Amino acid sequence: MASYPNSGGPIVTRVPVGDNRERLVCDACGYVEYDNPKIVVGAVVRRGDRVLLCRRAINPRKGFWTLPAGFLELHESTEAGARREAFEEACAEIRIRALLAVYNIPRLSQVQLIYQADLLSEARPGEESLEVGLFTWDQVPWGQLAFPSVRWALHQEREVRGLAAFAPRGNPPEEDGRY
Amino acid sequence: MASYPNSGGPIVTRVPVGDNRERLVCDACGYVEYDNPKIVVGAVVRRGDRVLLCRRAINPRKGFWTLPAGFLELHESTEAGARREAFEEACAEIRIRALLAVYNIPRLSQVQLIYQADLLSEARPGEESLEVGLFTWDQVPWGQLAFPSVRWALHQEREVRGLAAFAPRGNPPEEDGRY
User: Fold this and answer.
1) How many angstroms separate the CA of residue A125 from the nearest CA in chain B?
2) DSSP assignment, residue A168?
3) Which end of chain A has fewer CB within 10 Å, C or N?
4) Rounded mean pLDDT of chain A?
């Protein structure tokens, strides 16, 4: 695991040579801490006309419904990460079809890659879920979704269903930045 | 800037409560260091039948040709990051058309989002470039490209040219993981 140095040197904030932004720099070992946005990977997982949602057992938004999704880990591909999250949160095996959307949440320094996927197994709550369920469009607990991007993804997955090839969707224009 | 704590507490490697992987944890303040993959944003920038390449003034691969691309910064959207990199490396204003490709480089814990874009201005070397140029397909310095993904992106941009909507490309199957 790449990590912050523990060389004992003083840590200062300055612009490293050849850079144009302030970073945290260790004067003893020369290490520069580049803090960058994080990638969230997840999926709208479908079986027939129903989609898989998980009720969160952890904060933020404990008790609310979300897509299986989470932070990409080191040395993991985005597709593998989306499959892992479905397995961790819903004990679900999935097959990825296509990249549904790329959502930018600059306020949180977060980029979300949400895939369109099929459910290949049963689903039951993993450690981070209170319960999981398969919902038709009318059954989706719209008032109890955990994050705006869950709603975006469900709507956009409905739009692209049946399309052979499509450009991934992004933040809905009217909501861009309001997260 | 979110940053590693400087609370003076001992830093240990263990699995935090509710997690399933070892992380660096500060016992004094409870901070957990989540080290995650980094996002590279860039673009295949076109004017007519020519594409913009930059010869790198810095390592890695100093002296070799690359697309304008670099690490996404905190609080930046992926499109804004791709525009910034084109400006920093080639003093170029660009208009983004579509997401061309998502490349996974798990060995480097890197996810690359490469856009298809048009060149709106002149181009000249920025601080990180020795020179920049516009190349037709036959003029591209194929033997002096900095990274495999530069070649992938140039080939895939050629495939999708003229398509109204397309799914973003990924690592070429025969080269997946060989980076």
Assistant:
1) 15
2) P
3) N
4) 91
The rounded distance, in Å, linking the Cα atoms of B156 and B163 is 12
The b/e string for A22-59 (b: 16+ C-beta within 10 A; e otherwise) is ebbbbeeeebebeebbbbbbbbbbbeeebbbbbbbbee
Best residue in A11, A111, A149 for a mutation probing chain B (most B CBs within 10 Å): A111
Could you read off the pLDDT of A112-166 as tens digits, one per residue?
A: 999 999 999 999 999 999 999 999 999 999 999 999 999 999 999 999 999 989 9
Set of chain B residues whose Cβ sits within 8 Å of the Cβ of A2: 35, 109
User: Across the interface, which of B4, B76, B80 has its CB nearest the CB of A33?
Assistant: B4
Burial class (CB in 10 A: 0-12, 13-18, 19+), B9: middle
CA distance A49 to A67: 16
Nearest-angstrom CA–CA distance, B70 and B20: 31
Indicate which of A72, A112, A115 best probes the interface with B, i.e. most B CBs within 10 Å of its own CB. Answer: A72
The residue-averaged pLDDT of B134-160 equals 97
Rounded Cα gap, residues B18 and B5, in angstroms: 21
- Residue of A2, A34, A99 lying closest to B102 (CB–CB): A99
pLDDT value, residue A176: 55
| Vertex B44: Cα angle to B42 and B49 (nearest 5) | 165
Provide the residue ranges of all domains of chain B, joining segments of one domain with +.
1-35, 38-161
CB contacts of B24 in chain A (<8 Å) are 1, 3-4
Residue B6: which pLDDT band, with cuts at 50, 70 and 90?
Answer: low
CATH number of B1-35: 2.20.70.10
| Residue B10 distance to chain A (closest CA, Å) | 10
Give the residue on B whose Cα is nearest the Cα of A33: B3
Give the gap in angstroms from C-alpha B62 to the nearest C-alpha of chain A: 14
Of 3.40.50.970, 3.40.50.300, 3.90.79.10, 3.40.50.12780, the CATH number of A38-161 is 3.90.79.10
3-class DSSP assignment, residue A79? helix
